[in-house]
Known about the structure:
The structure is a homodimer.
Chain A: H1 3-13, E1 17-21, H2 36-50, E2 56-60, H3 61-65, H4 68-84, E3 88-95, H5 99-112, E4 117-120, H6 126-133, E5 139-145, H7 165-173, E6 182-186, H8 191-200, E7 206-208, H9 218-225, E8 232-236, H10 238-241, H11 249-267
Parallel strand pairs in A: 1-2, 1-8, 2-3, 3-4, 4-5, 5-6, 6-7, 7-8
Helix pairs in contact in A: 2-4, 2-11, 5-6, 8-9
Amino acid sequence: MKVSDLEKVIFQKKSYLCVGLDPDIQKLPAHLPKTAQGVLEFCLAIIDSTDSFSVAYKLNSAFFENLGAEGWNVMSAVFAELKKRGLYSIADAKRADIGNTSEQYAKAFFENLGADSITLSPYMGHDSIGPFLQYSDKAAILLALTSNAGHADFEMLKLENGKKLYEQVIETSQTWTRSGDLMFVVGATRSQEIQNVRRICPDNFLLVPGVGAQGGSLEDISKYGLTDKGGLLVNASRSIIYAGNGSDFAKMAGDEAKKLQREMAEFL
Amino acid sequence: MKVSDLEKVIFQKKSYLCVGLDPDIQKLPAHLPKTAQGVLEFCLAIIDSTDSFSVAYKLNSAFFENLGAEGWNVMSAVFAELKKRGLYSIADAKRADIGNTSEQYAKAFFENLGADSITLSPYMGHDSIGPFLQYSDKAAILLALTSNAGHADFEMLKLENGKKLYEQVIETSQTWTRSGDLMFVVGATRSQEIQNVRRICPDNFLLVPGVGAQGGSLEDISKYGLTDKGGLLVNASRSIIYAGNGSDFAKMAGDEAKKLQREMAEFL
Lengths: 268, 268
């Protein structure tokens, strides 16, 4: 799915909610087996109960990789289900390497798994990101300012030119080929910074994690992050997928997603 | 295997060679099937023919991931073979994410695959690296200065304090818990910078890719990078594993590894 299609869906569904699938096998509801199959059932049930209220799903690849080859197959099945339902998919994989290696990652995630987009670390620069931007129907999502405590170590460092590193990442990457298909990760715990980010990139989509479990304010993010075309995906993971842990976990996840969607409809 | 054991092996074998396993299925010798099984045979043959001359092997996870679940099983089998032979293994995976996610990556690579170490991107700071440093018998290898053209985009940026970003990455990370088990990636194409890196971290191991196909000089790297304890792993990938592409590819890989080991023996 292209970013332009995602924009349409946002206004159709009156939602910019992204559901984060971080399926910790230890946290599965008791009636599901603590196996790769259990994780697959869990993800499919969450998708089924939330897809009226959300436009995108973000698969955190770590939680699949730690199940080995079976986990990779589950990740593949979940991406296939999202494609079938016309939902936008994000591989939250934080990859990027020298060019010939990034080409292999792009093939793995875009061609084989069928993800619509992937999160990438900007550290290694343009030729580590370029291979992902060669797919005209896919998007590359660069880490800019993250929601964890460690963001202060490097992302917030002041450069000689007066800019912060994360600001420079956004500015520099906008000079790259097909930079219109770049999105940026901006943590919700720093809503005061979202206004700043919008000044540097008025049009690019922002992927904002950290609402819910990590404590960001949806109102602030929406106020500063939304554009005429939407331009925003707000991700909630744990607050939705672990809303309940009984046999009604999917319904409770759906209720939680609905609550967020209702708020979003007012901000749009 | 602990870093202290790696140090011993370096002097026993008179080698600090790391063989990079980037098995591109399109480049397998003609007599091997272009399948996951072919990739496994290829890797095992390369290990068998080079392990007298090398102390470590670096698996580039992208080249396994692009084979899907089967590729993950091949990666697992290769790590198991390295462990059986007492060879130091590096998962060249360029991971790192918020703490609860890095924990899952650490579990996937250290516990399930049995890798001795993993390459990580420093961008997200201390709590994205910390979970990897909680394993007392494992090492975390931070990207500092890479060998690709894109290193100029961010890694070389001058900070307000006069340091370059990659220098700050090395300095800051040395204040973290168990930082003695940090290694740093420093590209061989910048041998003049290795001297500089050694000034900032006199003792940590450096993983130096870019010798061979990417054109770095082994003499310069060794001169500036070696310490009393070794402290250096020089990686060659394509120049060894694709030294030949006939039925004698493994022998030719061994010859190439031997050539590098002979040079290293003189520098040690």
